[in-house]
């Protein structure tokens, strides 16, 4: 009798193909199916030849080739295709079988799908998978959530294929119920947007303000990758700046219009919905939107004048300040991202392990960095830590970085070089450490034009007041509410 497969996978695109090769290399037999059946045969007879794969030409064949409880993983385009495949798979499964979505699904969809699949007597897992093609093949970071009863059945497979940190701990653990896994993956991607943007702002300052060549910048990023900034994104930036085509830096030949797949936008919208100031990531999303307006920017550049870029300071000091600015902003980005996860956990009833999430991001994923080990320590020291900036280590680091960070922002603004994420992060830092903000005036304005009421510093919290500011209004106040 033919050996049944340990897991089945639908979707043999780049991520799916590499992920099943990873699974097979760890000793698992994998059944594979793709809507375009020719891809199945091509894979089984190509990269999968001689390996423990079972090719399936239909959903029915795929399910029939699986050990019970059956585990069917989808790596297909987010949105309607996921729902379509769920509807195709469900009729062929039995109670206790498991459907897994390994794509970049929006977390509300995963919440909805978990309820739907569970209503059919089945189990559902929505897992973020980060690391791209290389990570899928050699060890990604995985962030699973969904039906808790499913975890024991998929744990060994997931943790065996995941990236490992120095002590062998896998970069994969159970995140939480229903959409928790995809929410954490969404925040990961938002932080990725932010990290990439602040690196790009540092690059632009080096190039346009300091007049540095790609080779010089390559050396700076090479040096930065040895210290606090040691990370995958700094590492690949070093490599990109050193890559040449026809003797010239390829990066300078690439059109300056950025693409995006939506996860950064989702992170920003979730922050607005939950009332969390996710300023750095929000600005990084808008920076991509502005870059996409290339033709309009070219037109504006011909008619709108700004300051002439002229740097007269100490170049070496400026490079050191840039390092501080990057590190300070990076701390803010993670502080805001973790703040968002905390609020979402409270909203949805998730019991998130924040130190564990940092560990999951230590390897395999795009934002992997040495820095994440310090985040895990912070939450190990204080599991109830309300904000990373209140951890002694990060408080000390951001305070030490702020002088250089301020000089960078001031110099950039004076010279008209846009640094939206570096400056928004600094403004958040200053706002966060301010005992008093000007929202008292804002509340007075709201009460003046809309009778929205206000609280007073000389009265207990929770008591609301309205003033007849003009003498022409009445005593009726609007209902107090927060959106």
TrEMBL record:
Tell me the InterPro entries matching this sequence: 6-PGluconate_DH-like_C_sf, 6PGD_dom2, 6PGDH_C, 6PGDH_Gnd/GntZ, 6PGDH_NADP-bd, 6PGdom_BS, NAD(P)-bd_dom_sf, Pgluconate_DH
Physiological role:
Catalyzes the oxidative decarboxylation of 6-phosphogluconate to ribulose 5-phosphate and CO(2), with concomitant reduction of NADP to NADPH.
The entry's protein name is 6-phosphogluconate dehydrogenase, decarboxylating
User: What is the scientific name of the source organism?
Assistant: Sunxiuqinia elliptica
Q: Which SUPFAM superfamilies would you find in this protein's record?
A: 6-phosphogluconate dehydrogenase C-terminal domain-like (SSF48179), NAD(P)-binding Rossmann-fold domains (SSF51735)
Q: What is its EC number?
A: 1.1.1.44
Q: Which residues bind substrate?
A: 104, 130-132, 188-189, 193, 261, 288, 446, 452
Enumerate the NCBIfam families for this protein: gnd (TIGR00873), PRK09287.1 (NF006765)
The UniProt record lists the keyword NADP = yes
User: Quick one: which pathway?
Assistant: Carbohydrate degradation; pentose phosphate pathway; D-ribulose 5-phosphate from D-glucose 6-phosphate (oxidative stage): step 3/3
GO terms of molecular function: NADP binding; phosphogluconate dehydrogenase (decarboxylating) activity
């Amino acid at each position: 009798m033919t050996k049944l497969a340990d897991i089945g996978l639908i979707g043999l695109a780049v991520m799916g193909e590499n992920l099943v090769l990873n699974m097979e290399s760890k000793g698992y037999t994998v059944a594979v199916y793709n809507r375009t059946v020719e891809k199945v045969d091509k894979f089984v007879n190509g990269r999968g030849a001689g390996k423990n794969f079972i090719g399936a030409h239909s959903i029915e064949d795929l399910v029939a080739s699986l050990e019970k409880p059956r585990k069917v993983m989808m790596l297909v385009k987010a949105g309607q295709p996921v729902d379509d495949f769920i509807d195709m798979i469900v009729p062929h499964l039995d109670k206790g079988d498991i459907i897994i979505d390994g794509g970049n699904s929006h977390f509300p969809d995963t919440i909805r799908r978990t309820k739907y699949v569970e209503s059919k007597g089945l189990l559902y897992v929505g897992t973020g998978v980060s690391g791209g093609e290389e990570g899928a093949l050699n060890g990604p970071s995985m962030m699973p959530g969904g039906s808790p009863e499913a975890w024991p059945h998929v744990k060994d497979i997931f943790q065996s294929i995941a990236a490992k940190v120095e002590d062998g701990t896998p970069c994969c653990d159970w995140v939480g119920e229903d959409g928790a896994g995809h929410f954490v993956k969404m925040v990961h991607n938002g932080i990725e947007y932010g990290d990439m943007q602040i690196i790009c702002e540092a690059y632009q300052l080096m190039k346009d303000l300091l007049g540095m060549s790609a080779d010089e910048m390559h050396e700076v990023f090479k040096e930065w990758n040895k210290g606090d900034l040691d990370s995958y994104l700094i590492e690949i930036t070093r490599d990109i700046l050193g890559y040449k085509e026809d003797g010239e830096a390829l990066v300078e030949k690439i059109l300056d219009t950025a693409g995006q797949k939506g996860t950064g936008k989702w992170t920003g919208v979730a922050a607005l919905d939950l009332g969390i100031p996710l300023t750095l990531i929000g600005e990084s999303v808008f920076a991509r939107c502005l870059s996409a307006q290339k033709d309009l920017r070219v037109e504006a550049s011909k008619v709108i004048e700004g300051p002439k870029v002229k740097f007269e300071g100490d170049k070496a000091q400026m490079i050191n300040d840039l390092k501080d600015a990057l590190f300070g902003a990076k701390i803010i980005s993670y502080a805001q991202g973790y703040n968002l996860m905390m609020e979402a956990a409270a909203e949805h009833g998730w019991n998130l392990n924040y130190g564990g999430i940092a560990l999951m991001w230590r390897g395999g994923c795009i934002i992997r960095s040495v820095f994440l080990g310090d985040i895990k320590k912070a939450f190990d020291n204080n599991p109830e830590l309300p904000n990373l900036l209140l951890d002694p280590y990060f408080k000390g680091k951001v305070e030490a970085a702020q002088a250089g960070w301020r000089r960078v922002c001031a110099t950039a603004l004076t010279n008209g070089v846009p640094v939206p994420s570096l400056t928004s992060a600094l403004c958040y830092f200053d706002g966060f450490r301010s005992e008093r903000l000007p929202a008292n005036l804002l509340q007075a304005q709201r009460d003046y034009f809309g009778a929205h009421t206000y609280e007073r510093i000389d009265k207990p919290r929770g008591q609301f007041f309205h003033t007849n500011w003009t003498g022409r209004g009445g005593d009726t106040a609007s209902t107090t509410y927060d959106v």
